[in-house]
Design brief:
Elements: E1 15-19, E2 21-22, E3 25-26, H1 28-44, E4 48-54, H2 61-66, E5 71-76, H3 85-99, E6 103-107, H4 110-123, E7 127-131, E8 133-135, H5 138-148, E9 166-171, E10 176-180, E11 188-192, H6 204-209, E12 211-213, E13 246-250, H7 258-272, E14 275-278, H8 280-284, E15 305-309, H9 315-318, E16 326-331, E17 344-347, H10 350-367
Parallel strand pairs: 1-4, 1-6, 4-5, 5-12, 6-11, 7-11, 13-14, 13-15, 15-16, 16-17
Antiparallel strand pairs: 2-3, 8-9, 9-10
Helix pairs in contact: 3-4, 7-10
């Protein structure tokens, strides 16, 4: 578009969320992003819009409205039925150039991590990848820093009129948290890690009020350098940490008997109907596969019960589980940081404590 310039910051408004669907089903991360986008849009005083690409997916529009979208830009075409980088990038870039949102969010899925950088390059703007926290309102951001960092935030001077999106992500292998802004270009773009944002409650009245917009776009053969011939799904058993009500995680504390420690965690998780997770130390040591990792560089979880076995509680791990409803920690060290956020703490050897926990839970279940 001739008049489009990513540096004309004042010409951009509204918050957009790329709504990722696969074979006609919306991904759970999309609803998390819509819920978070609703908060950002309210802080900015603008509309929250979903951007939905696919073929015969109009039936998903009301679902997006139910979680907070004011409008949904629906782009349907047979060439958009299955994801291809070329087609999706062309359509998204055309829509952004035509309607100019100031914020554009993607889920940090395989598709989002492939698509967002290509769109950012096409639109001549920046991208912050793998975010774990988003803010616009400065006082809220200051409060986030006060609770989640060691900075003396009250000694800083803050520009309370700042409308820039503040995108926080792990840096240096998860040892630091960096907040990034994009003040000179629009839209401000970010990919957000699945499970980090909380999904709002569904609101049926909002579902009926969502506005459907069908942008005009064109896809030519020259725009499409790849074509999907067949989709073959790999059958692999992965642990569903983000959807579990109970997560039992192990850390470096099982090092004296790794096999026994994991077996205890699996037995405890089995009794409670949960799954087994692990700290970065457990994953890096090869004790568990990467899909079990909880933390800044793993998955963020919000289960009803989170049990930490032999996990010291480094800030990187706490960031991935501290919003759990009930946290139970077992650790030999009375000064372990995990006890600072635990609802129930047991100072003792997990190899002695966990068998007692398993026995106690089983006895309670038998009574019922």
């Amino acid at each position: 578009m001739k008049n489009y310039s990513s540096t004309d910051v004042a010409a951009f408004q509204d918050v957009w969320v790329f709504c990722e669907q696969r074979q006609g089903e919306m991904t759970p991360t999309t609803y998390e992003l819509i819920s978070e986008g609703r908060k950002l849009a309210d802080e900015l005083g603008v509309k929250l819009c979903g951007l939905l690409l696919g073929s015969q997916v109009e039936g998903l529009v009301k679902d997006l409205g139910a979680y907070g979208a004011d409008q949904v830009y629906l782009c349907e075409d047979p060439e958009l039925k299955d994801y291809t980088t070329d087609a999706y990038t062309k359509v998204i870039a055309d829509c952004v150039e035509a309607f100019r949102p100031e914020i554009l969010l993607f889920g940090a899925s395989n598709i989002g991590r492939d698509l967002a950088p290509r769109c950012a390059a096409r639109l001549h703007t920046g991208l912050c990848a793998d975010c774990t926290h988003l803010d616009v309102d400065v006082p809220k951001y200051v409060q986030f820093l006060r609770e989640a960092s060691t900075l003396d935030v009250d000694a800083q001077k803050w520009d309370l009129e700042d409308r820039n999106l503040k995108m926080t992500r792990p840096a240096f292998g998860g040892h630091l948290m960096a907040t990034i802004i994009c003040p000179r270009f629009r839209p401000a773009m970010a990919t957000v890690r699945p499970g980090v944002m909380k999904k709002a409650a569904r609101n049926e009245s909002m579902a009926t009020r969502v506005e459907l917009i069908r942008p005009t776009f064109q896809l030519f053969a020259a725009d499409l350098r790849t074509k999907v011939r067949e989709i073959v799904k790999e059958t692999r058993k992965l642990v569903d940490l983000t959807g579990a009500d109970v997560v039992v995680s192990v850390g470096r504390g099982i090092s004296k008997d790794v096999e026994g420690g994991i077996k205890l965690a699996e037995e405890l998780a089995g009794v409670l109907g949960g799954v087994v997770g692990g700290s970065r130390a457990a994953i890096d040591s090869g004790w568990l596969s990467a899909d079990h990792q909880v933390g800044q560089t793993g998955k963020t979880v919000h289960p009803k019960i989170y049990i930490a076995l032999g996990i010291s509680g480094a800030i990187q791990h706490k960031a991935g589980m501290q919003d759990s409803e009930n946290i139970i920690a077992v650790n030999k060290s009375a000064t372990a940081p995990i006890f600072e956020i635990a609802d129930f703490g047991i100072c003792g050897d997990l190899f002695q404590v966990v068998p007692l926990m398993i026995q106690s839970f089983r006895e309670e279940q038998e009574k019922k």
